[in-house]
């Protein structure tokens, strides 16, 4: 039984028995008719499923007409990742931080303030499970951090089952979307590549990232943005490979300075 703080309003029934909705059904429940569609659908190839907004690639233009301000975006991203991690825990889905989100964890277990998205991964069986039972489900959170309540939608790309990296228009397999701000979490699938030249145990994603499974598993338990989270076993090696050694030590970046006393990235005056 899920905690009372979590309610699936799209299905109006228990999560364990909810059926996937057609995209138009979920969007009807969310009632986006009074919003201008700012998605880039018109300019995207027809094969592409997810359409980022015309004003910022890290916003869903169906739910937003402009980017949030600095402080508002930070707060919305914190709620975005907290609700996602708690929901996946409730559903029994093992997910872990990757890319820029993992780098944010390295520094202070928070999203880096200049980031405008969150990156996570799941296994292939988990993605099939989410696609089968929870695609287009809308989750309503009402917590002390969200006293007015907010809806988050899990949307799975129907092209997720095609794991070939040649499908470069659909490298994102699913998204967890804040239907008020338009911010989202990119969810990619880590798949075993049985024909990889490096032999058994190699995993890859459609976005081209490749790694041996021993770099990921067993996952480590940790905290991210104040809630339970998981990270890859060899997180440091993954970060150095993706971003370089300097990314783990450079304390002045993206117009922010890392304060070792407060353990926070402090914006320079122009960002405030």
Automatic annotation (TrEMBL):
InterPro entries from the UniProt entry: FKTN/MNN4/W02B3.4-1, LicD/FKTN/FKRP_NTP_transf
GO BP term, example: glycoprotein metabolic process
Domain of life: Eukaryota
Keywords: Membrane, Signal, Transmembrane, Transmembrane helix
Entry's Gene Ontology cellular component terms: membrane
Major localisation: membrane
Domain LicD/FKTN/FKRP nucleotidyltransferase: 89-190, 201-244
Pfam families assigned to the protein according to its UniProt record, in alphabetical order: LicD
Membrane topology: Single-pass membrane protein
Signal peptide: 1-18
Subcellular location: Membrane
Name this protein carries in UniProt: LicD family-domain-containing protein
Source organism of this protein record: Pseudoneurospora amorphoporcata
């Amino acid at each position: 039984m899920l905690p009372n703080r979590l309610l699936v309003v799209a299905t109006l029934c228990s999560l364990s028995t909810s059926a996937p909705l057609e995209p138009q059904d979920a969007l009807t429940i969310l009632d986006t008719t009074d919003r201008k569609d700012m998605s880039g659908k018109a300019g995207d190839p027809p094969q592409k499923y997810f359409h980022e907004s015309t004003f910022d690639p890290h916003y869903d233009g169906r739910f937003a007409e402009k980017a949030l301000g600095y402080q508002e975006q930070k707060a919305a991203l914190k709620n975005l990742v907290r609700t996602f991690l708690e929901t996946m825990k409730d559903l029994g889905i093992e997910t872990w931080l990757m890319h820029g989100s993992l780098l944010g964890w390295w520094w202070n277990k928070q999203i880096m303030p200049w980031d405008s998205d969150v990156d996570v991964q799941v296994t292939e069986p988990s993605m099939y499970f989410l696609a089968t039972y929870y695609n287009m489900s809308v989750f309503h959170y009402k917590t002390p951090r969200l006293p007015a309540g907010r809806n988050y939608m899990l949307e799975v790309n129907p092209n997720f089952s095609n794991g070939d990296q040649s499908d470069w228009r659909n490298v994102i397999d699913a998204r967890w979307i804040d239907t008020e701000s338009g911010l989202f979490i990119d969810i990619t699938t880590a798949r075993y590549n049985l024909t990889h030249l490096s032999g058994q145990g190699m995993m890859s994603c459609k976005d081209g990232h490749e790694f041996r499974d021993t770099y990921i598993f067993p996952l480590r338990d940790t905290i991210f943005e104040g809630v339970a989270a998981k990270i890859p076993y060899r997180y440091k090696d993954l970060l150095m490979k993706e971003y370089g050694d300097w990314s783990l030590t450079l304390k002045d970046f993206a117009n922010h300075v890392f304060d070792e006393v407060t353990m926070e990235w402090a914006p320079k005056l122009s960002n405030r």
